[in-house]
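User: Just a sanity check before I run the rest of the batch. Below are the structure tokens for the first item. I only need the designed sequence back.
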């Protein structure tokens, strides 16, 4: 029988700290660029604050909203349907940066691919809850579970956004692994994805250039390797204590999108190894507390929700930091809570609200 206990204060505090660090670093990374482009150094910061406040309000609201109420087919399949429509709608709107990723309204924009992550988490938690003994049934369990994942990943790839599609698949795979899916099915999935990935990576020139830049950025330092090299220079320049907040140089039109994809490089340059380790430690604590929540409950639905939300945050953080450190090819994955982006911070904070609600209910 579930009982109410206090919210996980550690998880709550870590989330607030990451949001605070994000607001500070967004301002530091974007002030000069915002002044140059828009005439005010606060343009990106103000937008981020608005989304952060909205996200925190959503987090608090969902933290006090019983997660069991989401376990209803009308909620689950309505969210899947709305997400699918939004992912399709972007193809009928104007392109931005040669992609179809955003739905714009007024001075704000929304990225439907961010909604795809919690939609998949909610669906898989609902669908797998009572099917743990039937995970070998590929026709009635694995195939129905894979259809929304494959559909969303395919639509996101077409935007094109391979990085987010991979993140969606990785989050889903984490939930399936915790549910008990046999490793051989993961092997079959990897084998089935090799040919599509070959064409998506090695037959698309700009993605192939990213792979070459990852393997040897100095083979073309002024071309495809430029961004990787600038990121590594920022990290190396920071040293142990950093050059000081607001004092970084690589954000001054050397790093691409320093307030989003490469914000961790700005953090490393200005706050040094100490600041970087603090950020990594906060994500590590988030991972530990999220896993603790998942395995502290006997409610399979809650376990899969908790694992999915934790994986959503940590997998994206790992991918973003790995890109900055040249441990994987460049991908447009935000650093959760920290990177500039309204869709990302709002959806992430709302999802954490569900996770915090789970922490209040134990068996």
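Assistant: Here's the designed sequence for the first item:
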């Amino acid at each position: 029988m579930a009982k109410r206990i206090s919210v996980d204060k550690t998880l709550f505090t870590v989330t607030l700290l990451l949001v605070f660090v994000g607001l500070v670093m967004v301002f530091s990374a974007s002030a000069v660029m915002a002044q140059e482009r828009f005439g005010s150094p606060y343009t990106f910061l103000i937008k981020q604050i608005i989304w952060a406040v909205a996200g925190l309000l959503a987090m608090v609201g969902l933290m006090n909203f019983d997660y069991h109420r989401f376990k209803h087919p009308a909620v689950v399949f309505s969210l899947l349907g709305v997400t699918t429509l939004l992912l399709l709608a972007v193809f009928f709107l104007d392109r931005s940066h040669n992609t179809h990723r955003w739905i714009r309204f007024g001075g704000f924009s929304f990225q439907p691919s961010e909604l795809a992550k919690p939609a998949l988490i909610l669906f898989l938690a609902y669908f797998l809850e009572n099917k743990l003994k039937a995970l070998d049934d590929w026709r009635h369990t694995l195939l129905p579970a894979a259809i929304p994942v494959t559909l969303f990943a395919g639509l996101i790839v077409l935007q094109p956004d391979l990085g987010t599609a991979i993140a969606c698949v990785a989050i889903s795979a984490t939930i399936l692994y915790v549910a008990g899916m046999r490793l051989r099915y993961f092997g079959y999935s990897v084998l089935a994805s090799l040919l599509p990935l070959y064409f998506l990576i090695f037959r698309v020139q700009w993605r192939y250039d990213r792979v070459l830049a990852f393997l040897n950025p100095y083979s073309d330092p002024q071309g495809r390797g430029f961004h990787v090299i600038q990121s590594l220079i920022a990290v190396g320049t920071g040293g142990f204590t950093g050059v000081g907040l607001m004092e970084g140089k690589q954000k001054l039109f050397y790093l691409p999108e320093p307030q989003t994809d490469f914000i961790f490089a700005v953090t490393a340059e200005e706050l040094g190894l100490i600041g970087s380790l603090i950020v990594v430690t906060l994500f590590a604590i988030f991972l530990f507390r999220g896993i603790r929540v998942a395995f502290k409950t006997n409610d399979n639905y809650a376990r899969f929700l908790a694992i999915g939300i934790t994986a959503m945050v940590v997998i994206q953080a790992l991918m973003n930091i790995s890109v900055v450190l040249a441990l994987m090819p460049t991908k447009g994955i935000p650093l959760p809570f920290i990177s500039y982006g309204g869709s990302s911070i709002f959806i992430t904070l709302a999802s954490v609200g569900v996770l915090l609600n789970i922490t209040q209910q134990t068996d």
